[in-house]
Design brief:
six-stranded parallel β-sheet, single chain
Length: about 350
């Protein structure tokens, strides 16, 4: 995917770029922007959707590819993209193999629930392995300063570097394509992403704004979402798309008046960055790296976690004040251009690779 083994300096591991989730989206952007070719990166898939047997075979193939490459072509750097739970343990095994092979290693953390995974879900042995993996990595990439602070507290010896997710800037979006009252949500539909708070907000707003439509693009507990929507009598104001690809995502962004992701925890969500790049006003919660990207009433609106009243007020503001919506959307796009564009982020990654290569 990123060139033949004999040409690569970097082996990068992560979710299938054509699959679902934030890591897949990050990998897809890097591939599309030519990052792999310019930096001699070979991308190896560690997780793909499908049966349990397919997932196991994909993971074993990744281990075999890494072991063979370290024995033969000896890449300088092994870079893994990791979330938490099973994703972390799969990637930590790859990092351990790479260290045994004398390779420089990069642990790239994406999981918005990593703090919960470490502090609440992991026992003493698992917590020791997590700290060991982070401490032994040549570099640890986090998506925000807040996550960097957490990792430095957890593992003082960690060599942490903050590099945000990158997003491509689409061509200027045409505001005339926006549909009044249309709210777009992209993510895993469940309590952790605030989906039920959104349904409650729509129920409160549907009489005031009869055109309101919550469009949900993503997998998750869609049957429960549908059940709650009917219970709240907002079924006619909710559209369930399921997981959508890039082309459909872009189409939905063009049609949306507002983007929202009222999550209970996050890293730095790609869907939010993509919406900002598309010039959309965003309504999000100040969790994870979000408040480092979004300032309230400057380039988006921030609402407290679980506060339906604040969601209702934010949507009412944006539906009632087109000028505010346009201003926030324009400022959001400017934020992406200045701090999160592919050129900015890919330069930071390339510089990190250069430092690791020189120290090898």
């Amino acid at each position: 995917m990123g060139g033949r083994v004999k040409e690569c300096k970097v082996l990068m591991f992560g979710t299938d770029p054509d699959g679902q989730g934030g890591i897949a989206t990050v990998a897809s952007v890097l591939r599309q922007q030519g990052f792999f070719e310019r930096n001699q990166v070979r991308y190896i898939v560690t997780h793909a959707n499908g049966t349990g047997a397919r997932k196991l075979l994909t993971a074993l193939d990744a281990v075999a590819a890494l072991s063979w490459a370290c024995l033969t072509r000896r890449p300088v750097i092994v870079h893994v993209h990791s979330a938490c739970r099973a994703s972390f343990f799969r990637k930590s095994l790859l990092l351990a193999i790479a260290r045994m092979g004398g390779r420089k290693t990069v642990f790239h953390l994406h999981g918005g629930e990593f703090r919960q995974f470490v502090m609440e879900e992991s026992g003493p042995l698992a917590r020791w392995w997590i700290r060991h993996t982070i401490a032994r990595s040549s570099a640890v990439i986090t998506l925000s300063d807040s996550w960097a602070d957490f990792l430095r507290t957890l593992v003082p010896a960690a060599k942490v570097r903050v590099i945000a997710n990158s997003v491509a800037l689409p061509a200027d979006m045409n505001p005339a394509l926006e549909e009044p009252g249309r709210i777009l949500f992209l993510g895993r539909a469940g309590k952790a992403k605030g989906i039920f708070d959104l349904l409650a907000a729509v129920a409160r707003l549907k009489d005031e704004f009869p055109e309101i439509m919550l469009v949900i693009g993503g997998d998750g507990d869609l049957q429960e979402v549908e059940r709650v929507a009917e219970q709240l009598q907002v079924g006619a104001h909710v559209t369930l798309l399921g997981w959508i690809g890039q082309q459909e995502r872009d189409s939905q962004l063009r049609r949306a008046a507002v983007f929202t992701l009222p999550s209970y925890n996050e890293g730095l969500p790609m869907s939010m960055l993509e919406a900002m790049a598309a010039g959309k006003a965003v309504v999000v919660t100040p969790v994870g790296g979000i408040p480092e990207a979004v300032q309230d009433h400057e380039n988006g609106l921030l609402v407290c976690v679980g506060e339906v009243d604040q969601l209702v007020y934010a949507f009412r503001q944006l539906f009632s004040d087109v000028a505010l919506r346009r201003t926030l959307g324009n400022q959001a796009r400017a934020t992406i251009a200045g701090r999160y564009s592919t050129d900015v982020v890919m330069t930071q990654l390339s510089q990190l690779y250069g430092e690791l290569e020189r120290s090898a």
